[in-house]
């Protein structure tokens, strides 16, 4: 239920504000460590279009592709967006495996969702030689994706709060790929010595997390959340 999943005691990801220049971003963060960016975009117009009522009115009958909430989320299920919102958008069951938990993140049909994404203001920074691709998601409290890695990207919270856990590429986290992030937080996280704990922080609406290439990361939605990522491929 909302509020039952705690925030971290202390955010250990560095923060930067709108005074961060592109050259400093490249020098300090782009290839070396994550950073939370505040005040670098204004997505109030996009946020207004992402209310439950507006999204259901615009996309209710369209199919969305759900993925399983495990590290290797290969299983896909297509359902009407309205069915997902009204019947599947629930708090995470702590006893349910990741392979049995369906989650709407990414796999967006750009023919249908493109008009919405046109209103999104992406972060102002890019990695040379990459191009951006959007991944939009909506998920219930306690849901999330367990540890995995891919190329660099940004993730912004539109509604709700999203807790992140990150490890550098040379420090593989201890986890089971079919265990949900919530189960990992309840069972494994408390056993970790301080030196083995991840970098972590909770993002709130309007905040953007940048993660470099090949950084391990897991996510946990503390509330029913709307979020959008910009992957740099």
Structure, described:
The chain is α+β, with helices and mostly antiparallel strands. The protein has one domain (16-232): Jelly Rolls. Helices cover 20% and strands 28% of the residues. The protein contains 6 helices and 12 strands. The strands form 2 sheets. A 9-stranded mixed β-sheet has the order 1-2-10-7-12-6-5-3-4. Strands 9-8-11 form a 3-stranded antiparallel β-sheet, with no helix packed on it. Helix 1 (22-30) links the parallel strand 1 (15-16) and strand 2. The termini are far apart. 36% of the residues are buried. This is JMJD8 protein. Pfam families: Cupin_8 (PF13621). It comes from Sylvia atricapilla.
What are the main properties of this structure?
28% strand, globular
SSE layout and pairing:
Elements: E1 15-16, H1 22-30, E2 35-38, H2 44-49, H3 52-59, E3 63-68, E4 76-80, H4 81-88, E5 102-105, H5 110-117, E6 132-139, E7 153-159, E8 162-167, H6 181-187, E9 199-203, E10 207-211, E11 216-221, E12 225-232
Short recap of the structure:
The chain has 233 residues and is α+β, with helices and mostly antiparallel strands. It has six helices and twelve strands.
């Amino acid at each position: 239920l909302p509020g039952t999943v705690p925030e971290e005691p202390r955010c250990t990801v560095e923060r930067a504000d709108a005074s961060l220049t592109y050259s400093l971003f490249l020098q300090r963060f782009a290839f070396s460590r994550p950073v939370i960016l505040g005040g670098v975009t204004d997505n109030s117009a996009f946020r207004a279009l992402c209310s439950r009522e507006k999204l259901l009115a615009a996309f209710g009958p369209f199919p969305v592709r759900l993925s399983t909430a495990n590290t290797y989320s290969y299983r896909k299920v297509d359902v009407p967006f309205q069915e997902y919102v009204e019947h599947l958008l629930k708090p995470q069951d702590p006893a349910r495996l990741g392979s049995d938990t369906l989650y709407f993140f990414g796999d967006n049909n750009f023919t249908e969702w493109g008009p919405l994404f046109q209103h999104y203001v992406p972060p102002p920074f890019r990695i040379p030689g990459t191009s951006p691709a959007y991944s939009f998601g909506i998920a219930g409290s306690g849901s999330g994706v367990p540890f995995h890695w891919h190329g660099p990207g940004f993730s912004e919270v539109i509604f709700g709060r999203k807790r992140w856990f990150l490890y550098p590429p040379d420090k593989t986290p201890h986890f089971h790929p079919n265990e949900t992030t919530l189960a990992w937080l309840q069972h494994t996280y408390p056993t970790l010595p301080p030196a083995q704990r991840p970098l972590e922080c909770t993002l709130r609406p309007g905040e953007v997390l940048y993660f470099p290439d090949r950084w391990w990361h897991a996510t946990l939605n503390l509330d029913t959340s709307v979020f959008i990522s910009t992957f740099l491929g």
